[in-house]
Specification:
By secondary structure, the protein is α+β, with helices and mostly antiparallel strands. It has 3 domains: about 5-45 and about 55-70 and about 200-275 and about 375-415, FAD/NAD(P)-binding domain; about 85-195, no CATH class; about 275-370, Polyamine Oxidase, Chain A, domain 2 (Alpha-Beta Complex), CATH 3.90.660.10. The chain contains 16 helices and 21 strands. The chain has helices at about 10-20, 60-70, 75-80, 100-110, 115-130, 145, 150-165, 175-185, 205, 210-215, 255-260, 265-275, 310-315, 330-335, 335-350, 405-415, and strands at about 5, 25-30, 40-45, 50, 55-60, 80, 85, 95, 195-200, 220-225, 230-235, 235-240, 245, 245-250, 275-285, 295-300, 305-310, 320-325, 360-370, 385, 390. It is globular, with a radius of gyration of 22 Å.
C-alpha cells in the first residue's frame, strides 16, 4: 500500500483516486474549488442549477461509463441514449440506426436525403479508404487537408460538425490523425459505439457528487476549497504542503500542474505551460412551447454549431441549449454581439413555429479554457513527470482529444502507473 496524493478533482483526478483506492492505496484528493468536477460540473447561475457547458458522451466512452457505475451512478438512468443523428433544424440529415455502427453508417449514408447520389458514394469511398489505412494518416495533416476533394455538402453536414464537436478545433486547424482515431472508435466501433449519450441529470450527478460520497466511504480523504501551495521532494517521497506521500498524481489544469512540477521537471512544465486553448460558449434559451426536430440538431452559418432540446432530454420543456465550439472569435466579439448573432441564427435557420413564444437568453456561460487546441503534430505532456510523480488530465499525451473519456482514461493510466 502506498500513500498517494491526487491534486485536482476534475474527471481525471476522480478517476485516478477511485482506481487507486480500488488497488488498496491510501488516497488524499486535493481540490482548490469547493466543488468537485473541474470543467465538467454543475454551477449556480442566477438562481438556477446549470451545467457549466453542454457535455456529450457517446457509446464508445467505455471507461467513463464504467467509472460512473463504480461510484454508484446508473448510466441507463442518468443518460439519454439515442442513435447518432446529425440533422438540421428541419429534421433532414444523417441518422444512424441501432446495431453495428459500420453497417448503420452505410445505411444512414445511403438514406441521407440531403445529399446527392454522388455525394453519398463519395462519403462511402472516403470512409472505406480511411478504414483500409487503419484510420491513420500523416500526423501533420489538418482535417481540412484530409478531406480535400470531398464534396462541400459532406464537409458542411458531417465532417465540420463532427470535428468541432470532438476536437473543439476548426477543421482548418484540427489534427486529422486525432480526428480519424475518434471516427474509428465511434462511427466504426462496436454496436452502440456511435450512440449519443446526453445527460438527463446535472453534470454534478453524473460523477463528481457521487465520487465525493464514494471516496470517503472507501477510505479516501477529500480536501476541497484550498489550493496546493507547494509540491516538494522529501527523500524518495513527495510532500504536498505539509503532508507526506509516497507518490503523487498532478491532475489539475495544465497551467497549475506546470507550476507545481517546474522545480522537479522543467522541460515537462514548459511543455504543459505552452499548450494553447479553445473556449466554448453555452447559451441557455427559454421559450415556452419550443421544440426541436431531434434532441440534438446541427446548425450552420452562425455562431452555434449545435442546439439541444432539454425538454426531450431532461424533461425541461421550452429550454434550449445552444453551443458555440471553437468560440474565440465570439469571445472577442463580446456577449452582446454574440447574443444578437444567436437570435438571428434562431430566426433564420429554424422552421416557422419552432419558437411559439419569445426566446430569451437566461444564461450565457463561457469556459475560456475549455479544451486544448488539438492541432497537427502537437506534442502533449507525458504521463511520467518524475520518479513517483505522474500527470493526469485530458491534455496529457494520449489517443483522444480533450474529452471526458480522454480525462478518465488518463486518470486510470496514472493509477496503473503507480500501482
Amino acid at each position: 500500500m502506498k500513500r498517494v496524493a491526487v491534486i485536482g478533482a476534475g474527471w481525471a483526478g476522480l478517476a485516478a483516486a477511485v482506481r487507486l483506492l480500488e488497488r488498496g492505496h491510501a488516497v488524499t484528493l486535493y481540490e482548490m474549488a469547493r466543488h468537485l468536477g473541474g470543467r465538467a460540473r454543475s454551477v449556480e447561475y442566477a438562481g438556477r442549477t446549470l451545467d457549466n457547458g453542454q457535455h456529450i458522451l457517446i457509446g464508445a466512452y467505455a471507461r467513463t461509463l464504467a467509472l460512473m457505475r463504480t461510484v454508484g451512478v446508473d448510466p441507463g438512468t442518468a443518460l439519454m441514449r439515442t442513435p447518432l443523428v446529425l440533422a438540421s433544424p428541419d429534421g433532414v440529415g444523417l441518422r444512424l440506426g441501432p446495431g453495428n455502427a459500420t453497417a448503420a453508417f452505410v445505411r444512414a449514408t445511403l438514406a441521407q436525403r440531403g445529399w446527392r447520389r454522388r455525394d453519398r458514394i463519395a462519403m462511402l469511398w472516403h470512409a472505406a479508404a480511411w478504414a483500409v489505412r487503419g484510420f491513420r494518416c500523416n500526423p501533420l495533416l489538418t482535417v481540412e487537408a484530409l478531406c480535400r476533394g470531398m464534396p462541400a455538402a459532406l464537409r458542411r453536414d458531417l465532417i465540420d460538425p463532427l470535428c468541432v464537436a470532438a476536437l473543439n478545433t476548426p477543421s482548418g486547424q484540427a489534427s486529422a490523425a486525432v480526428f480519424l482515431r475518434v471516427l474509428r472508435d465511434a462511427l466504426f466501433g462496436g454496436p452502440g459505439s456511435a450512440d449519443l449519450l446526453l445527460p438527463r441529470q446535472p453534470l454534478g450527478d453524473l460523477l463528481p457528487e457521487a465520487a465525493q460520497r464514494w471516496l470517503p466511504a472507501h477510505g479516501g480523504a477529500v480536501r476541497s476549497g484550498a489550493r496546493v501551495r507547494m509540491l516538494a521532494t522529501d527523500g524518495p517521497k513527495w510532500r504536498v504542503d505539509d503532508d507526506l506521500h509516497d507518490a503523487c498524481v498532478v491532475a489539475c489544469t495544465a497551467a497549475e500542474a506546470a507550476r507545481l512540477a517546474a522545480p522537479h521537471a522543467g522541460a515537462w512544465a514548459q511543455q504543459a505551460a505552452a499548450l494553447h486553448y479553445e473556449p466554448i460558449i453555452t447559451a441557455v434559451i427559454e421559450c415556452p412551447g419550443a421544440r426541436l426536430a431531434a434532441p440534438m440538431v446541427a446548425l450552420a452559418q452562425g455562431p452555434a454549431q449545435f442546439a439541444f432540446d432539454q425538454g426531450a432530454i431532461a424533461g425541461m420543456p421550452g429550454r434550449i441549449t445552444l453551443v458555440i465550439s471553437g468560440a474565440q472569435p465570439w469571445v472577442d466579439a463580446g456577449r452582446e454581439a454574440t447574443e444578437r448573432a444567436l437570435q438571428a441564427q434562431m430566426t433564420d435557420q429554424f422552421p416557422a413555429g419552432s419558437w411559439p413564444g419569445s426566446p430569451t437568453v437566461v444564461a450565457f456561460l463561457t469556459e475560456r479554457r475549455a479544451t486544448f487546441r488539438c492541432t497537427p503534430g502537437l506534442r502533449r505532456p507525458a504521463l511520467h513527470v518524475a520518479p513517483g510523480l505522474v500527470a493526469a488530465g485530458d491534455y496529457v499525451d494520449g489517443p483522444y482529444p480533450a474529452t471526458l473519456e480522454g480525462a478518465v482514461r488518463s486518470g486510470e493510466a496514472a493509477a496503473q502507473a503507480l500501482s
